[in-house]
C-alpha cells in the first residue's frame, strides 16, 4: 500500500489540528478511548461541539494555549493509502519545526482562515513548501461556515494566493484550492451541499487520487550503501552483498553501475529482499545488491547508474535553515551528514539571508540566528557525491551537526 506523507501549515488558530482531528474522526481512525477523552474534555470546557484539535495537540502547553508548538506525526489509513500527517506549528518562531516536518513530505496543506485571507504567515508557509520542492499543495480555505460559505470570499482569497504563486521559483508544483470547514466537516472527508458552487474533490478525495508519478522525482537512482553483507556461513561462504535503500528511481539486474568515490564500474548481478530474488528494485525499496565483479565498497559509498553520475566535489552552496540558538558564522566547522556519509565542513561564505515572506534578501549578514534561512557555501575535507535538491530531494539534502555538542543545528538543500 502506498504511503503518502503530508505536511500541514497555517497561522495561529487557522484550524490545522482541528482539520486533522476531523479527518481522523470521519475516517473512523480515532480509538474509542481517544474519542471518549475528546468528548469529555469538550464538554468540560462548555463546548457544544467536539474539539478535534485535542486529537493532535499532545503537549500540555499546546492544550492550555490552544496552539501547536511541536511537530506531531499522525498516522491513519484508508482502503487505498496509508497516510502520515505532520502537524507543524504556524508561529514564525517555530519556522525550523515547519521545515523539519515538511522536509520528508510529498504533499502539503496550507490552511487559510476565510475571515482573514492571505496574510504574511501565508507567504512564509508557501515559501517553505516552495523551498522544499513539494509538488502537490492544497490551499484549504477553512472556516467557510463563519463567512456563510461565500463563493465571493473564496474567490477573493484564491485570487490573492495566485498573486503569491507568481513569486515562486519552483514551477513544477500543482496548487489545488478547496473550501472547507474543519469544525463542521464540510469538504474534508465528505462533500457538503453548503458549497454548491464548488464542484471539485474533498480534501481526502484529492489525496486518495494522487498518483505516485505526480509527487515523486523519478529517474536518477541513487543507492547509498549502509552495510556490507558477509554471512560467512558454509552455504554463503563467498557471498558479498551491499545493503541499502534505493532513492529516486529503479535499479535492475544487468544495469552498469559506478561505485563512488572509487568510480569503479561493474554490473548488478542479483537483487535480494531477504531470501527472495528480484529483477528490479523500485524506488524506496530496501534491498541487498550483488555485483558481477569483486570491487572494494564500504558503508558510505554509493552505487549509481553509469549514465547518471552525480556531482563529486569538496565544495557546494546550499540553502540553510538554521535551528540552533548559537549563531552560524563564516569560518565555523560542522559535520555534514549527507545520507550515511559524515564529512567535516567549514563555512566558507554566507552569501545572503532570505526573507521567507518573499520580501527579498539581506546581503549584510554576519551570522545566522535561529529560524534564519540563508544561502551558504561550505568547503569539505573530502568529496561527497550529491545532486541539486530540486533534482533529487534525498541526495540533495543534508543536516549540520555541531562538533562540540553533537546536536543537529541546521538542515541544508543543495543548490
Could you characterize what this model shows?
The protein has three domains: 2-215, 3-Layer(aba) Sandwich (Rossmann fold); 222-305, Elongation Factor Tu (Ef-tu), domain 3 (Beta Barrel); 311-414, Translation factors (Elongation Factor Tu (Ef-tu), domain 3), CATH 2.40.30.10. Helix content is 18%, strand content 37%. It has 415 residues and is α+β, with helices and mostly antiparallel strands.
What is the structure about, briefly put?
18% of the residues lie in helices and 37% in strands.
State the end-to-end distance. 33 Å
Percent strand: 35-45%
Poorly predicted runs are 59-69
From the alpha carbons, calculate the radius of gyration and give it in angstroms: 24 Å
List keywords for this structure.
single chain, 415 residues, alpha+beta, Rossmann fold, Elongation Factor Tu (Ef-tu), domain 3, six-stranded antiparallel barrel, 8 helices, globular
List the SSEs and their pairings:
Blueprint: E1 2-9, H1 16-26, H2 32-44, H3 60-65, E2 72-77, E3 81-87, H4 95-102, E4 107-113, H5 120-131, E5 136-142, H6 151-165, E6 174-179, H7 203-208, H8 212-215, E7 222-229, E8 241-245, E9 251-252, E10 256-260, E11 264-273, E12 276-278, E13 280-281, E14 286-291, E15 302-305, E16 311-322, E17 328-329, E18 333-338, E19 341-355, E20 360-362, E21 367-368, E22 373-386, E23 397-402, E24 408-414
Parallel strand pairs: 1-3, 1-4, 4-5, 5-6
Antiparallel strand pairs: 2-3, 7-8, 7-15, 8-14, 9-13, 10-11, 10-15, 11-12, 11-14, 16-22, 16-24, 17-21, 18-19, 18-23, 19-20, 19-22, 23-24
Amino acid at each position: 500500500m502506498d504511503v503518502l506523507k503530508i505536511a500541514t501549515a497555517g497561522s495561529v488558530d487557522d484550524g490545522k489540528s482541528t482539520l486533522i482531528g476531523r479527518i481522523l474522526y470521519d475516517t473512523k481512525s480515532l480509538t474509542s478511548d481517544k474519542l471518549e477523552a475528546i468528548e469529555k474534555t469538550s464538554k468540560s470546557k462548555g463546548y457544544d461541539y467536539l474539539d478535534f484539535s485535542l486529537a493532535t495537540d499532545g503537549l500540555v502547553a499546546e492544550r492550555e494555549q490552544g496552539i501547536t508548538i511541536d511537530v506531531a506525526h499522525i498516522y491513519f489509513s484508508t482502503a487505498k493509502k496509508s497516510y502520515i500527517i505532520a502537524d507543524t506549528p504556524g508561529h514564525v518562531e517555530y519556522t525550523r519545526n515547519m521545515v523539519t516536518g515538511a522536509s520528508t513530505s510529498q504533499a502539503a496543506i496550507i490552511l487559510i482562515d476565510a475571515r482573514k485571507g492571505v496574510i504574511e504567515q501565508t507567504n512564509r508557509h508557501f515559501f517553505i513548501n516552495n523551498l522544499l520542492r513539494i509538488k502537490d499543495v492544497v490551499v484549504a480555505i477553512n472556516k467557510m461556515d463563519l463567512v456563510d460559505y461565500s463563493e465571493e470570499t473564496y474567490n477573493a482569497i484564491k485570487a490573492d494566493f495566485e498573486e503569491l504563486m507568481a513569486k515562486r521559483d519552483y514551477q513544477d508544483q500543482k496548487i489545488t484550492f478547496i473550501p472547507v470547514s474543519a469544525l463542521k466537516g464540510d469538504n474534508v472527508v465528505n462533500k457538503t451541499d453548503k458549497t454548491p458552487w464548488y464542484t471539485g474533490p474533498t480534501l481526502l478525495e484529492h489525496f486518495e487520487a494522487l498518483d505516485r508519478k505526480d509527487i515523486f522525482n523519478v529517474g536518477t537512482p541513487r543507492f547509498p550503501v549502509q552495510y556490507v553483507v558477509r554471512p560467512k556461513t558454509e552455504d554463503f561462504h563467498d557471498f558479498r552483498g551491499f545493503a541499502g535503500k534505493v532513492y529516486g528511481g529503479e535499479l535492475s539486474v544487468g544495469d552498469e553501475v559506478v561505485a563512488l568515490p572509487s568510480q569503479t564500474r561493474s554490473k548488478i548481478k542479483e537483487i535480494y529482499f531477504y531470501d527472495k530474488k528480484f529483477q528490479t528494485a523500485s524506488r524506496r525499496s530496501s534491498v541487498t545488491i550483488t555485483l558481477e565483479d569483486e570491487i572494494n565498497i564500504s558503508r558510505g559509498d554509493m552505487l549509481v547508474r553509469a549514465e547518471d553520475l552525480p556531482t563529486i566535489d569538496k565544495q557546494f552552496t546550499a540553502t540553510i535553515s538554521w535551528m540552533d540558538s548559537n549563531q552560524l558564522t563564516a569560518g565555523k566547522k560542522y559535520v555534514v551528514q549527507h545520507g550515511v556519509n559524515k564529512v567535516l565542513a567549514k563555512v566558507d561564505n554566507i552569501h545572503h539571508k532570505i526573507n521567507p515572506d518573499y520580501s527579498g534578501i539581506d546581503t549584510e549578514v554576519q551570522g545566522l540566528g535561529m529560524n534564519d534561512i540563508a544561502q551558504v557555501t561550505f568547503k569539505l575535507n573530502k568529496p561527497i557525491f550529491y545532486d541539486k535538491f530540486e533534482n533529487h530531494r534525498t541526495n540533495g539534502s543534508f543536516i549540520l551537526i555541531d562538533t562540540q555538542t553533537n546536536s543537529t543545528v541546521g538542515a541544508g538543500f543543495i543548490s
